[in-house]
Amino acid sequence: IITILKEEGIFERTLIIFTSDNGGLLGVTNNEPLRSGKGFPYEGGIRVPLIMRWPGKLPAGQESSQVCATFDLTRSILNLTKGKAPNRQLEGIDIVQHLVERKPNIPRTLFWRGKRGERTWSAVRDGNLKFVRKTEGRTEEWLFDLSKDLAEETDLLLQQPKEGARLKALLNGWEEDIVPVR
User: Fold this and answer.
1) Strand 109-116 to strand 50-53: parallel, antiparallel, or no bridges (unpaired)?
2) Which pLDDT tens digit goes with each residue over 75-113?
3) Full-model pTM
4) Dihedral of the alpha carbons of 159, 164, 165, 168, in degrees to the nearest 10
């Protein structure tokens, strides 16, 4: 791709984005140290690389720990192309401009929900805390601190009940606003 962009004389003004929409498929990939994979709201299913190259705009080797989601790329690309959003409000921040301007990290609250048959997984991440819920006949819930437990092995619900309740309320509020696809 880079060779063709250079041959066409547009490499220096082209933003290249490499990412994925979900983590690797279990049994085929190794997502360690992250837990689980595609189809699950654990980090192994949702944390993916985001690599961008834009000569003259993004410094080579720059790293960021800014929490983002693929819907941030929609906002970024629309802004870069001066495109118009459909007749609905878009979620997301302009992550490209955020990196170009080298802005400090901003706090984000992100939500996930996935339904497969009778099983529904949902989660909310607020700062370093992440609340995960699985409903399949009965409901199971967990709370993790990603700053200390990236593998999501230690459930903190009993040790931090107020934080668990706070994140659960955030997730419940979000789910009331989102109409599930059937």
Assistant:
1) unpaired
2) 999 999 998 877 777 889 999 999 999 999 999 999 999
3) 0.89
4) -160
